[in-house]
Amino acid sequence: MVLSATTETAPTAPLPRGPLERFLRLFADVREGEGGQLVLLALNVFLILTAYYVMKPAREALILMEPGGAEIKSYSTALQAVLLAVAVPAYGALATRLSRRRLINAVTAFFVACLPLFYVAAEVGVHVGITFFLWIGVFSLMVISQFWAYANDLYTPEAGKRLFALVAFGASSGAVFGAFVSGHLIGVLGVHALLLVAATILAASLVVFNFIDLRARSAASAAGHPKAAELPIGHGNAFGLVLSSGYLLLIAALFLLVNWVNTTGEYVLSSIVKHAADADVAAGILAPGKEGAFIGAFFAHYFQAVNVIGMLLQLLVVSRLVKYVGVPAGLCILPLVAFGSYLAAALLPSLAIIRWVKITERSVDYSLQNTVAQMLYLPTTREEKYKAKQVTDTFVVRAGDVLAAATVFVGSSVMALSVSQFALINVSLAVAWFLIAVVLGREFQRQTMPKEGAATDAASAPLETPLAERTLP
Hints:
Elements: H1 19-24, H2 35-64, H3 69-97, H4 100-123, H5 129-154, H6 157-189, H7 194-222, H8 238-243, H9 246-282, H10 291-347, H11 351-375, H12 382-414, H13 419-448
């Protein structure tokens, strides 16, 4: 079985002359005129991920301090799938009526406005742990998914495969910075104030997006279609688009398995952390009532370790790996990592092993896996980018979490499984994940290779000529 793709030969292009492009070329195949848009997109997603990782320790503290702790956290992910079954069609209805600029502005502004409300509720003593956990689960998928839909809309498949690794570096570095900020601020400001910090950062990301879109609309006007970017995205049904495409169904199956494995592993880690906090209180090491700060600080440092490693992989490895082995082989790496990691956890179950299993898995997930997963949408139509992508990136992801919640319920409440046995479940799921990745990688290669160097059809082409694809003097 051949996993690697034949290295694709890019069209001959002159070496960059500008200092920005020359610098970026140290990390990826960046060409003349591409640097400005690339840096702005990376900054946009940097701010989104910074805001998210400022909120994540607050999320962990709030949900794990609820009665039932880790179990409620796992089961709440199932409720997110129910919410998304309503939210995704609502998002699709907005996309039918709004242009992409107005769509992204409206959705992001809604999430910004919610954060001060959560802060006030938490400050007056309302138990917001479960509600906030559900809210941030929808936010983290929907807002990030629409950013990548926009990035897919700006670039052709050839340009996206060259440049997405650097765009994704913005996400990786934002995650590192957000974890760093939250880890230092949580002890000073407290858990609740992190929500206001995140609201400010997310609002800044919206300013950056509008500047990017202004440049894109100016490019569209120069290309002779100034009104094109203001058109609604399309009339297709989000779920119908997925169900009618074998390619999108394969993507959905991949996302389902990825999150089934990840969430089951997170349950194991959360259980151990909560047990450690309770044990420290019982031993007199930790003062009663400080469990939330302990849990929040642990996860802040955990996320920081994951994201520092992921950021280094993103900057130094991912672009080169995709260039030399291709997207199909890239899709197969994380399931192999997960297989080996959980097999080690099953054979040597301990807190240190589980911690490093999750750090290894998550760092590869947030770097390589995230980048190649976003590339999968490059050959799709505009409606599929914005609408079908919301289905696979949100509802299907949470459906995987539902399966993980069922696994946790049956495994812990009915079968009383040990940590080793939960790890073995993930080993078996990683095998199925690997097989789906092989098939999906071949289909991606089939869809993109004939299109290299050719103009896309009217339904799938970006409305403005991407900066990456212009002919420059």
